[in-house]
Amino acid sequence: MPRRRIGFAYRFAAVICKPPLVVLLKRDWRGMENIPAEGGFITAVNHNSHIDPVAYAHFQYNTGRVPRFLAKSGLFNKGFVGAMMRGTGQIPVYRESTDALSAFRAAIDAVERGECVAFYPEGTLTRDPDGWPMTGKTGAARVALQTRCPVVPVAQWGANEVLPPYSGKPRLFPRKTHRVLAGPPVDLDRFYDREMTPELLKEATEAIMAAVTRHLEEIRGEKAPEEPYDPQRERVEQRRKTRAQTRRREHDGPSGREPAEHGPSERLSSAHGSPADGAQSGRQHQERQNEQRRAGERATAREEEGLNT
């Protein structure tokens, strides 16, 4: 199947973006020979900076195979940026709506037409404290198994040194190097001709993320953690800790000790009645605490169920 032509909009975007990127970043790019010359394929790329999509697009543009990124739908409505997103054929992702599956269908259609779709399998900027790839979401694996297209694992490092994740303050000097390593396609043959269960998709996603992480280890010259950072599991653990702390506070009282017996004057005051609004306020406060605790337990249960699917 022939490759997709680059088109005017992509060339115009390159004219605008390439000069500042050349000035801002030195380049150490390897593995361009692993980008397929023909036919549809997927690239799975790690995500560690708000500017790395532009830096990575520069790398792949220079291979002659331009990527189509999956991007938040809101970007497509923002003036010039939105016009460029639409003109270059990027794929909008509509989260938590009836259009949520349209990005998946568009990605499959693009691959079947012989195009490249670039996935950030982590789904967002990495939250790993040292910038390693997190656990991945299953979208890239799902498209790959349905189309049987090549999945090229790509690791990048350097844009995050210019603009660290979750930071609005760039570090322009000294000039940084953008390092990219594209590896050979991930071997997914063992996943074909099997029922596409959540377990299968999870296993295929882990194979893809493991390849990306290995390439990033080579770029950085150090070993990644044995277990990738899992933001969902971290949220579950944090809720557990918060719930345990709340229970201890409720049990120990404000002072951190068991509530003392009321003295005679307090018992007498209680017997004669306390202000009605104070008693009602106390009951309402307790009911709110109980409801918050129950809501937290329900959310934790849902997330724990998600970890096992």
TrEMBL record:
Chain spans, region Disordered: 219-309
Domain Phospholipid/glycerol acyltransferase: 41-159
Keyword annotations of the record: Acyltransferase, Transferase
InterPro entries referenced in this protein's UniProt entry, alphabetically: Plipid/glycerol_acylTrfase
GO molecular function list: acyltransferase activity
Biased composition annotated in UniProt, kind: Basic and acidic residues: 219-239, 247-265, 284-309
Residue intervals passing through the bilayer: none
Pfam families, alphabetized: Acyltransferase
Protein name (database record): Lysophospholipid acyltransferase family protein
